[in-house]
Amino acid sequence: MSAPRGSASWFTAAADDELTIFQRSKPGRRAFVAPGLDVPERPLDELLPPALRRAEPPRLPEVSEPEINRHYNRLSKRNFDLDTGFYPLGSCTMKHNPKLHERVAALPGHAKLHPLQDPARAQGALEVMWRLQDALAEIAGLPHVSLQPSAGSHGELAGVLLTRAFHEDRGERRTKVLTPDTSHGTNPATVTMGGYDVVKVGTDQAGNVDLDDLRSKADEDVACLMLTNPSTVGLFETGIEEIARIVHGVGATLYYDGANLNAIMGICRPGDMGFDIVHFNLHKSFTQPHGGGGPGAGPIAVSERIEPFLPRPQVVRRESSENGSEPYFDLDFDRPKSIGRLRGFQGNYGVFVRSYAYIRSLGAAGLKEVSEVAVLNANYLLARLRAEGVLDHLPAAYERLCMHEFVLSGSPMKRDLKIKTLDLAKRLLDHGVHPPTVYFPLIVDEALLIEPTETETKETLDRFAEVVAEILREAREDPEIARNAPYTTPVRRLDEAAAARNPVLRQT
Amino acid sequence: MSRYTSATDADRSEMLRQIGVESIEELFREIPARLRLSSPLGVGEGLSEQEVYEELRTLAARNVSTEDEVSFLGAGMYDHYVPALVDSIILRSEFLTPYTPYQPEISQGGLQAMFEYQTAISELTGLPVSNASVYEGPSAVAAAGYVAKLANGRRRFIASRGVHPHSRETLATLAHGWDMAVEEAPLSGGTTDWPSIGDDVSAVIVQQPNFLGAVEQLEPIAEAAHRAGALVICACDPLPLAVLKPPGECGVDIAVGEGQTLGNRLDFGGPSFGFFAVTEALMRRVPGRIAGETQDADGRRGFVLTLQTREQHIRRERATSNICTAQALNALAGIVYLTWLGRQGIVELVELMIQRTAYARDRLEAIEGVTPLHDQPVVRELAVGIDAPVDRVIARCREEGINPGYALGQDYPEFEDGLLVALTERRTRADIDRLAEVLAAAIAAERSELAGARR
Questions:
Q1: DSSP 8-state code for residue A162
Q2: Over chain B, what is the mean pLDDT?
């Protein structure tokens, strides 16, 4: 007998064991009707010899359209989503995704434009890209932008390859890239993929980069320091100017991981701090819906000295033509020092349309207000959790004003209340809240990284603080409740170890 | 108060009081004053929703989309019909707005869709293991190269010249970071003329059908590569795989490709998705997310992200890839579309393309001044040489509302006036007849102009 099941509001249609679409298949059913054959039919064997063909059709599902529709609509109800509830997932910036953006991105002039259309016949698209480049350059405080990378990690890879090209152009062959021990996992993974060795830099008592450690590791073999600011512990890196001096002093580049840009738009700029290369996560700060794991886009902004190496092609505005006509937009392939392409075509254009619409909607004052309220909301939530007594069990990792997110440590909670951070997270599910990021950053024991974003109301933050307090009170009386949570979700705690031990990766 | 925030003045004072600071400015006091911006960003003032809509509509109107002309452009992305059902499902908030499913108990919808998608990709490619998506086609080829590098540590790649130029260039961009070289195997008569494969070759890379539309023989190169201990990477157009022998049955180790044709719109090149499928032996080197089946505490079936020890958030500098956010929503469109086509429908769709492409091939090759660039079997795309400056011929066709295809000379100087013509189920016999008529007239006009100039 299973544990008692509640009925959290977003799971009203949660069914028992859902069959996969393959298990719903029945020979003879179909949704698609092919257009009629309107050309003289020729024997297939003549057009495509049997030796090149498969013996039987791929075993795709055979289902009718009503069934497909119901299947995926029912599946959707087994997801929690941002449109329905609070999603304070640290480092992910789960802010409201304006519906206008879906409407403008779907306009046929954008959505049905072929990527190899002649630039003269894609002037609107190239202008969107050029204007977005211009806006991102201004926000970063760096003069040049490439929109090509497909996500943050792809932007990071661009940054590391740009760094390599920059050094090689000067005849230098460096071998190491520095990353703080607080960094996102993508940073060290990117360094390896870019052909460098990772050297970790420590964090000091206050949560900043340990400057002495940095000085001892910054030498002529170092190609780059990759940094997030505000850092992944949600704090502004107060020594950033000194960090830039140290890094530039040994001839290395300074790379900005833009995952946390939401805290500083219109407040301060990575370029002014001394960063050479910045990536943006358009799916974080600039409202591209996350889609359950993408799509995103990871444009990069760079300084003058990095510009010659930017990926190819670049969107440019050609100011004048011989007959005095209007300026026009073009793709520039003539970039001899370019690192080359990072992907096909020109990047995730549909994402650019949405992010451009966002920047136009908000303007300078609106973007600044985004960061102000993001930081206000985070500090307020931290204060509310303190007022609820939550920090007695889940202390802030650092006693400072936070930026747009903050880290708590569940270590005392684990010791005193006998529930782990994971248990708290799972119990939050029963309260209709998406848990914060857990067990990251790695340097904080039993970490919770909480990012409320600017689009949440004070009332939502109040309620979240009360819910956490309630779970802690409950745990004091009976820790087993949290340890066995969740109870009200479509499935209960899942055996991840078994999944990895005996991988079943497709329907058989 | 801006449109997407909701902190009123009263909220702000109460919140600041609770925090214990006087002003919002004070919250930023840790940022050195020298770094604080003293003037607004130069991005203009905010606009109302309707003004933003009008601006984006005006910009859209300056593009010539596949609704505005009859387009035979392909070369990696294709103008297929996207069923209304796909839009309806991917616009659902529950699929559109969640993050990557880190909390599986409240992400079963997305995870099960990934599992279903993996199954469909496995069926199409004939390989047992598919991930949940990578960015897109060309970067998928580069990611496959990285898997080969990790698997055997050898120094060279040999890529067919029939592999999409963007894929070859993307692989070269990344391989530079690994100190690896990408060498090219030439095309001969439309298909790849493979050199002998040495034991320093990490992987050979082939495309099916290749950039000129020709169907490649995969078995011989797979055998040669495996004899030398090299891996075989095949970039595939997924729809033709409904009819072509699956790469997995031909000895391919890694099948990747551009997923746009599976229910995703053109979007001027993205977002779409890349698919990535491998043999059992390479399972633990795959990049990106993979959904796997398991059980919950009550013994019920459920799905989780699995084999995560490959991934950056667990393994950091020892990860098999740095990829994090990929293309989950686009892959969802992919599985909905493949389900909508179904087992019989996908074959009917591809056979229709084969018949129409054969018809187009006959019609075009009958035009004076058009010669075939090869006579290999094709599925949906064909390559011809034009005996006139191709750019001018294309320009003339466009004036008649026909975009005849892609000028090959940009990437293949050896086919200076080559034209790559792509078909989908949206291009009817009437469209093909019109193309033949307009192309013949354009070529004739150019030739007579040239002849006139010579006289």
A1: H
A2: 97
